[in-house]
Amino acid sequence: xxxxxxxxxxxxxxxxxxxxxxxxxxxxxxxxxxxxxxxxxxxxxxxxxxxxxxxxxxxxxxxxxxxxxxxxxxxxxxxxxxxxxxxxxxxxxxxxxxxxxxxxxxxxxxxxx
Length: 113
What we know:
- By secondary structure, the chain is mainly α.
- The protein is built from four helices and four strands; from the N terminus they run E-E-E-E-H-H-H-H.
- Helix 1 runs antiparallel to helix 4 and helix 3 runs antiparallel to helix 4.
């Protein structure tokens, strides 16, 4: 079906090239990486909406997921953002949430068209 890559994923989608998958010998099909990135866009939108509605459990859950799967896919910076989101949502720290969401927005803009 698609191409498989070891260690380094090279994807033909704009702004998504030479993404270091960093999972040793694990092979990541480009379609899976594309879907992963598309989900991050939806997560970002959902977090901004949840912040405006003060729906902190949603942001906490998304943050927790980003923390785990960001590391799995080799995006340590995204995992760090996820950790900040999860922690700030658990204590309802709107200022830190806004800062972390801005960082998440920058991350998405730098990795996805």
